[in-house]
Amino acid sequence: MGKDEKYKRLIESLGNEYFFYSHNPDGKYFYISPSVELVLGYSVEEAFDGIVKHMTDSELNRKTIETLRKSAIGKKQKTFEFELYTKSGDIKIIEITESPLFNDDGSLLSIEGVAHDITDRKESEEIIKEQNIELTKQKEELQKTLQNLKDTQTQLIQSEKMGALGHLIAGIAHEINTPIGAIQASVENIFASIDSTLQNIYRLFTKLSKKELIIFLRIMGLMEKNKQPINSKEKREYKKEIKSKLVAAKIDNTYSISELITYLNLYNEIDVLIPLLNVENPEFILKAVKDLYSVRKNSENIKLAVDKASKIVFALKTFTHKDQGGEKEKANLIVNIETVLTLLQNQLKQGIELITDFDSVPLINCYPDCLVQVWTNLISNAIQAMDNNGVLTITVRNMGENVQISINDNGHGIAHEIRERIFEPFFTTKKAGEGTGIGLDIVKKIIDKHDATLNLESEIGVGTTFIITLPIN
């Protein structure tokens, strides 16, 4: 079998996203690969009538033709996009890369083309573009929210509830900026991965041998979508093991290849993977797999970041909501408490071990944003009582006609002689400037407003528990 025949068989064995063609300088085709039928539905004989005859009358095609007319083929490779009708009448977006071949005397011999069906990729790019627009809007809204919070901080401090929010602004800003940063980084990584994929895709499917293409597809098949991430220590141990196995297999570039394998989470598949790397350029194949995998990995990061930011914004809206009337409403008590925990997350994660134990409870008839003030005051006091380092335990119990909420800390405890006074207006044990002394007074009034009960258990050096019993109706 001659070299030309082998090359012909190789390109004709590629999947149904590609077909190849050759035509003379006058545009007459003298070769079109059989895969044109898989891409467009036309047989080779039908395609010889001229692929251009099957173009749609679209703005994309008009701009492409206008650009090609303005620039001669010259001696450079050109890549452009066309919309083509399939035989069944569907529209495909085809990316075409044409390269001129010249005679020894420099005259143009033929034009060699690779046509790639990028319809699915274009649809994915459009989805990513729409998602990026939406993410940009969300980012702008979050940034506006942060700016508004900073601008109104002095006004919020006028009430106990708004004062608490003013105290939380720095933490909230940090909690929102974290997912914003993750979104920004992930979007940039996706763009970089797509750019790298586009740059290497022609080489990937035309320059690699059939064996290397098969290895590329086999490595893609080893990828697991839902594999749990590993910590830094595990990653170092796996990387060390991978390097030793690569050295034993006499594979070069062990450092960069082990980095790629670790990034792809293929550490458990190393024994299957190493035999596949016995090719001329295993690093290029792994890099191509990484570019494709990175899009999915960063998209998952974006989703997690958006979910976190949305949860914070929802909690913030709930916290700052003002009662429009004096009527009670049905509310989810668990969501009510978790709203406060979300807003206090920045304080909790600095040294507090949070334990929650929630029964399933029905909706209760209450003033939801008033209860938010209760949980904010009690949980903030508990954190301060533990000097930001201790165990905070919150339990919710379904008692039938009532719901019982316990907030327990293992802080300093409250001396017996001041337990009755802590609910008095303006009484505080905090240092000057750290508290107004009206927080627990407001808590007591809100509890009374709900026809509920508030009990206190405390022991010096052991901790404090506030127990609130709320009627369901």
Structural description of this entry:
The protein is an alpha+beta fold. It folds into 3 domains: 3-117, 2-Layer Sandwich (Beta-Lactamase); 122-209 and 279-302; 324-471, Heat Shock Protein 90. 52% of the residues lie in helices and 18% in strands. It is built from 16 helices and 12 strands. The strands form 3 sheets. Strands 2-1-5-4-3 form a 5-stranded antiparallel beta sheet. The longest helix is centred in the middle third of the chain and has 47 residues, at 160-206. The N and C termini lie far apart (87 Å). Residues 153-159 and 432-437 have low confidence and may be disordered.
List keywords for this structure.
473 residues; alpha+beta; Heat Shock Protein 90; five-stranded mixed β-sheet
